[in-house]
Amino acid sequence: MDDKGQLRSDIKIEEEDDLGKEIKVKFEKDEDFMVSVISAMDEEKVIAMKAIKQP
Predict the structure, then answer these.
(1) Sign of the C-alpha dihedral, residues 38, 43, 49, 55?
(2) Which CATH number covers residue 25?
(3) pTM, full prediction
(4) Which candidate, 5, 4, 33, places its Cα nearest to that of 13?
């Protein structure tokens, strides 16, 4: 989601690096997680991922 609460599905993930591989595995296992995205000069990049614990 962006800062307005809108779901984002257009941000590309670098599948070759470790972070991209970890995100892909968690997504395929249907695990809940959030990613941190940095935006500069009209470009966006995922820089971190964190698992979300369910109550």
Answers:
(1) positive
(2) 2.40.50.140
(3) 0.73
(4) 33
